[in-house]
Amino acid sequence: xxxxxxxxxxxxxxxxxxxxxxxxxxxxxxxxxxxxxxxxxxxxxxxxxxxxxxxxxxxxxxxxxxxxxxxxxxxxxxxxxxxxxxxxxxxxxxxxxxxxxxxxxxxxxxxxxxx
Length: 115
Known about the structure:
single chain
């Protein structure tokens, strides 16, 4: 979800270092993660305002910007709320460094991998 928001910020020319602007963008962003809609090797489909961005969010530009875009407390609060809502609607597997400790600390099952 942070990658999708970062992609949207870059597309719309939002300054990713501006916490207030990023928070406003996060508040209105329609980010949907669903089962794969296309058989092209993807494990899921990510759309932003209805546009399929599944592969776009893996670009170098997004990778280079996502840590800054996701560093704002207000943005994190909004995205965490959306992630929790997603988990409440249906069974879900989530990946991320703070999913088990911050987003879903009371999850029924947690699997931690270290390399």
